[in-house]
Amino acid sequence: MTTETIVKRVMTENPFTAGPDMPLRQAVSLMRDRKIRHLPVVEEGGRLVGILTDRDVRHAALVPALAEHLTWELRRLKSLRVRDVMTWSVVTTQPEATLAQAGLTMFQRRIGSLPVVEDGKLVGILTETDVLKALTDGQETDPDALVW
After folding, report:
1. Does 3 score more than 60 pLDDT?
2. In the chain, count of helices (H) and strands (E)?
3. Which residue range forms the structural domain that includes residue 107?
4. Structure letter (DSSP) for residue 6
5. pTM recorded for the entire structure
6. Residue partners of 17: CB distance under 8 A and separation at least 6
7. Is residue 11 a part of any domain in this protein?
C-alpha cells in the first residue's frame, strides 16, 4: 500500500443494500446470512438515504420492551421497516479520497464503515476490514504476532 492509496482501490464495490421500506426482519436476515454489519439504504436509482448498522438493529431489539410504555400496538412492532430504525445522517466518502482521509474520518467519528458516493449514487462501501486489509497488504498476518 502506498501513502496515496485511494478509496476506490480498496472499497467493496456493489455492496448489498436495502430499501427504506424493506421489512426490518428481511434486512436483518440479509445481514446475518451475508455476515455484514453495515447495510446501505438506497432509494430507487441508487441514491443513498441512510445506513442500517448492527448497532441500529441492537437498539431496535429494545423496542418491544419499550412498546408497552409507548402504547404501541404489537402489530406495529411486527411491521417495522428499515426506515424506522436506520441511521438517516450518513457520513460518506468519495472514490478518489485517500485511504488515510477515510480511515481518519472513521476513527474520529467512531464508525465502522463509510458508504462511497459518486454523483449522488452509492458506488461502494469502505469498511474497517477493507482498511485493515489494505494496511496489512503484503505483510505477515499471523494473528498471534500482536498478542502480548
Report:
1. no
2. 8, 5
3. 7-136
4. B
5. 0.81
6. 39, 40, 41, 42, 122
7. yes
Angle 77-83-87 from CA coordinates, rounded to 5°? 115
Query: 101 in a domain, yes or no?
Result: yes
Q: How far apart are CA 138 and CA 121, in angstroms?
A: 32
pLDDT averaged over every residue in the chain: 86
CATH number of the domain where residue 90 is located: 3.10.580.10
Q: Are 40 and 112 in contact (CB under 8 A)?
A: no
Length of the chain: 148
Residue 141, in any domain of the structure:
no
**Share of residues in the chain with pLDDT > 70 (%):** 79
Q: 5 vs 69, 101, 128, 139, CA distance in Å?
A: 50, 10, 15, 16
- Are 24 and 59 in contact by the 8 Å Cβ rule? The answer is no
Tally the domains of the chain. 1
The predicted structure's pLDDT at residue 10: 95
- Distance between CA atoms of residues 28 and 79, nearest Å: 13
Evaluate whether residue 46 is within a structural domain: yes
Q: Return the pLDDT at 19.
A: 97
Location of C-alpha cell 442500517: 52
